[in-house]
Amino acid sequence: GAGVSQSPRYKVAKRGQDVALRCDPISGHVSLFWYQQALGQGPEFLTYFQNEAQLDKSGLPSDRFFAERPEGSVSTLKIQRTQQEDSAVYLCASSLDRHQPQHFGDGTRLSIL
Amino acid sequence: DAKTTQPPSMDCAEGRAANLPCNHSTISGNEYVYWYRQIHSQGPQYIIHGLKNNETNEMASLIITEDRKSSTLILPHATLRDTAVYYCIVRASGGSQGNLIFGKGTKLSVKP
Questions:
Q1: How far is A98 from chain B (nearest CA, A)?
Q2: Nearest residue in A to B91, CA atom
Q3: Candidates A99, A103, A105; nearest CB to B98
Q4: What is the pLDDT of residues B8-47, one digit of tens each?
Q5: Whole-angstrom Cα distance, residue A94 to residue A31?
Q6: Burial B31-45, CB ≥16 within 10 A → b, else e
Q7: What would the mean pLDDT of A75-98 be, rounded to a whole number?
Q8: Given an 8 Å threshold on Cβ–Cβ distance, is A106 in contact with B41?
């Protein structure tokens, strides 16, 4: 389909391992957002890209979280030295520009053991 | 913190209209009202947005009060597939911030 695609759909990692989560936005969408959703809560903003530029990373919870979008299309969210509190669903959204409605992928459910 | 207040849950009979309220008493003049919904195990889905006029699309209608301090999302003929958490979000039209601030939303259960 032409929607936002995220992979993997599920990821299980041991505490201390590094993980990488991928987001393929809708083609042509300039803006890309990452959100974290804890169980029973609404999504919370992590970071925002306009093309390849990371314009806002104020929501990243610690320096263990790192995101990139080197060619202005696919984005990767990396979490280093994972901890149990990192367990959540990580959602990616894209939009034509930051003012337009955002289209979300179905997320990656990350479980840290 | 979210700038909106929604009831935590609502029930609706299949085939009837679902009216979901949202209070946003501190909304600013340049802030839009957005509605998203999230079906279990899926990402949020955009439904509709508006500034001051009522809006309608193929999914729903959005009624905004004249003072803009509250709004109602209307699903005219709810189906079982409309069971989801519905989020009301206010968002500025300009500025550098484009991210959405979600609250806890309203869990709508459509029952046969």
A1: 5
A2: A99
A3: A99
A4: 999 999 999 999 999 999 998 888 999 999 999 999 999 9
A5: 5
A6: bbbbbbbbeeeebbe
A7: 96
A8: yes
